[in-house]
Amino acid sequence: MAHPIDLPAWRDLSVHAGEMAASHMRTLFADDPGRFDRFSLRLGDVLLDYSKNRITGHTMDLLIRLAEQAGLETARDAMFSGAKINTTEGRAVLHTALRGGGRPEVAAVLDKMGHFAQAVRNGDWRGATGKVITDVVNIGIGGSDLGPVMVSEALRPYHKDGLRVRFVSNVDGTHMAETLKLCDPESTLFIVASKTFTTQETMANAHTAKGWLVDRLGPGAVASHFVALSTNAPAVAAFGIDTDHMFEFWDWVGGRYSLWSAIGLSIAVAIGFNDFRRLLDGAAAMDEHFRSAPLAANMPVVMGLLGVWYNNFMDAHAHAVLPYDQYLHRLPAYLQQLDMESNGKSVARDGSTVSWQTGTIIFGEPGTNGQHAFYQLIHQGTKLIPCDFLAAANTHNPVGEHHTLLLSNFLAQPEALMRGKTLDEVKAENPDLADAQAAHRVFAGNHPTNTLLYKLLDPYTLGMLIALYEHKVFVQGILWDINSFDQWGVELGKQLAKKILPQLTGADQPGAHDCSTAGLINAVKAFQA
Ligand code: F6P
């Protein structure tokens, strides 16, 4: 396939970006009262307003043409069909099959998860001394942590009272130590979540948790206090977990796409299997939309293309995700892995080095906290940072005026970012202000935003939103001609950490390191002496 920059639509978009440099969204809105209707999409209870972008109908036509020329539809169909599109690992990419039904092995694991979740929740599954489980600790990292913790936090209103779900990921012993302080061994269940069951951090944490339990309840207690989620049965057995208590998944489920698989067991325990099923159903609805809606009316396609527009034609390097929804406070962290581990690549699918920009920097915080932290730079800094704003029209916590206050901010920020404030407007508000002072109060505006408004953050809607972002990432990976499903970039640091480990613990002198690393190893040892 041709590289994206060689596609005719890419060249047309470069020219068009030059033309668009002179236009301001204020004018685009003033000239077109139908802009909201033209540039918004609705699927079920989710509305995407993308009208506050630096686009015209012509921009969208060119972007759609780019998607067509890049073979997006063929690539999408290849993913859904189970073709081995993860070519550097020789794997299919079938997280959509986890929520679509139709695969007996998926149905069997879901059934097992359902029974297990129910048994923990209703007290049938007990600890070694007969106590009901009150604390569930998911031990995992990356995709075996971020999805489950994000969803678990997002769906707190659906949690069972008296059953606490905790997450330990960091190899920093503090994470485990502080979590164990909150747990009673007799009523704690550990879920060891690791696709490979070899990840250093997870194995270290799992062994520490096992030691803690065995010290208090004896080795016989492991069977009723540990279960595993993995693709690696021999390693699970070697760790000492009965494989009957292992929930399986498959190599065609990427780590960062795995919350829908057995990796979601902590979610199913927290919210119950029926609501976990609703989460899957919401994702399946978005899958169907992605698979069948025309490109121009396809939410993940539109969001993906807009990201390409800014990343590749307007020199934007970052993208902010701003949930005006406290329940989504871990969404930016989750999306950092989903997006940056997927599309942070600089080699094209044919092995050549790219000469175009790929994955963007994702960051964010819940609104309104972000407003009082980094929005200053988005409004008045020198960088172009497109933003996604997300909020629910209805709240699970109707406390006083809070939700209206929240929504007024959620609506005001994209408007402010789009409109800006001119020098004349500043002066009209402050007639006595000197020009040099007034300049500081001017807002250039023309800052692009997408707004995702949904009825209520329920499991089904959350499933839709997550799948929307998964497919957005897929669209961009195809447009950038990269493999979004490997992650070789995490390997080098792991290899070097293994070499350094004995140099920190033994008397060995630092081996072949640069003088900075060697100096730091010596300094650690000196401080510890
Ligand atoms: O960060 C690298 C990575 O391989 C992720 O892709 C994955 O989600 C994470 O490590 C955890 O891997 P595992 O589930 O095998 O422990």
UniProtKB/TrEMBL annotation:
Domain of life per record: Bacteria
UniProt GO molecular function: carbohydrate derivative binding; glucose-6-phosphate isomerase activity; monosaccharide binding
Catalytic reaction equation(s): alpha-D-glucose 6-phosphate = beta-D-fructose 6-phosphate
Coiled coil residues, start to end: none
InterPro entries linked to this entry: G6P_Isomerase, G6P_Isomerase_C, Phosphoglucose_isomerase_CS, SIS_dom_sf, SIS_PGI_1, SIS_PGI_2
Family recorded in the similarity comment: Belongs to the GPI family.
Entry function: Catalyzes the reversible isomerization of glucose-6-phosphate to fructose-6-phosphate.
Protein name per Swiss-Prot or TrEMBL: Glucose-6-phosphate isomerase
UniProt organism field: Magnetospirillum gryphiswaldense (strain DSM 6361 / JCM 21280 / NBRC 15271 / MSR-1)
